[in-house]
Amino acid sequence: MTERVIALDIGGTFIKRGVFIGGNLVETAKFPTRAQSLQTIQSAVAQSVECWKYGNIDGIAVSSAGDIDPYRGRCVYATDNLRGYSGFDIKNWLEERYGVRASALNDGHAALLGEAYRRKLDVPAVMLTLGTGVGGAYFDGKEVVFGEDFRYGRFGHLVMRPNGKTCNCGQRGCIEQYVSASALKEKCAAAGTVPEKVFFGEDARSRAVADEWLNDLCEAMETVYRAQKYELMIFGGGVCGSAQRWLPLLRQKTSRRAEISVLLNTAGMEGAYRWWCKNGKN
Ligand SMILES: [Zn+2]
């Protein structure tokens, strides 16, 4: 029998849903999370599962924002981006509601797990996802390290510039404040350009912005390396759309091995599915 598994990637704004049939991601769709309360989140999750009408399913694999205990499939803590979500037993709730085996893990952990599986990784690797903030995860050569508090790998809040820009976590000079997609957008706005164009611009102002961001990215890579040694750095997030342009420039500035996510925005779903296969299914 060919196994059918629904994979959900739950973020503060959207729930991405994929369907794996026989191990292949065959379909994806996107739904608003409606993160006002646990009830609205639950109904958004239910809708994203139930509108798949093409046959029975054998399981549900979740990748989610928040601190998730991957062994219990439970959200230990979430910020107000997902209101009421702290303490939610994602796995149990799905299993009771749909009568199939379910699993859940953090989205950063899931993305790197998906990458590691796809690349057949066997060296220590860090993934930084450059989005509104900077997400992260660490793979030790064999598995993704979750940490005792299920927060290991959140490198976006390592301080790279003491007394630097104030971060919403309360510290100053966090990596996130310099290399996130939002930080790049700000730098671009100040120079009268946009992230989509800045790496292609031939004018001096574009080159200066691109150069500054890439220098910051190198510094971020070094800051992470001091905290956690790695052999490969994988970048994910929206900024990767223009990576064919900026990655060669970055490589001129660092001797560390840097690559772009091969799965891009399906990495979370892929990792959720692999975790389900390994830990959720039985
Ligand atoms: Zn911070």
What can you tell me about this protein's structure?
With 282 residues, this protein is of the alpha/beta class. The protein folds into 2 domains: 4-110 and 268-280, Nucleotidyltransferase, domain 5 (2-Layer Sandwich), CATH 3.30.420; 120-265, 2-Layer Sandwich (Nucleotidyltransferase, domain 5). 36% of the residues lie in helices and 23% in strands. It is built from 9 helices and 11 strands. The chain has helices at residues 38-50, 90-98, 107-119, 176-179, 181-190, 195-198, 204-227, 243-253, 267-280, and strands spanning 4-10, 14-21, 24-32, 59-64, 67-69, 74-77, 101-106, 125-130, 134-139, 232-236, 257-260. The strands form 3 sheets. Strands 3-2-1-4-7 form a 5-stranded mixed sheet, sandwiched between helices. A hairpin with a 3-residue loop joins strand 8 and strand 9. Helix 3 (107-119) crosses helix 9 and helix 7 packs across helix 8 (243-253). The longest helix is centred in the C-terminal third of the chain and has 24 residues, at 204-227. 40% of the residues are buried. The protein binds zinc ion (ZN).
Question: What secondary-structure arrangement, pairings included, does this model have?
Answer:
Blueprint: E1 4-10, E2 14-21, E3 24-32, H1 38-50, E4 59-64, E5 67-69, E6 74-77, H2 90-98, E7 101-106, H3 107-119, E8 125-130, E9 134-139, H4 176-179, H5 181-190, H6 195-198, H7 204-227, E10 232-236, H8 243-253, E11 257-260, H9 267-280
Parallel strand pairs: 1-4, 4-7, 8-10, 10-11
Antiparallel strand pairs: 1-2, 2-3, 5-6, 8-9
Helix pairs in contact: 3-9, 7-8
Zinc ion (ZN) binds at residues 157, 167, 169, 171, 174, 176.
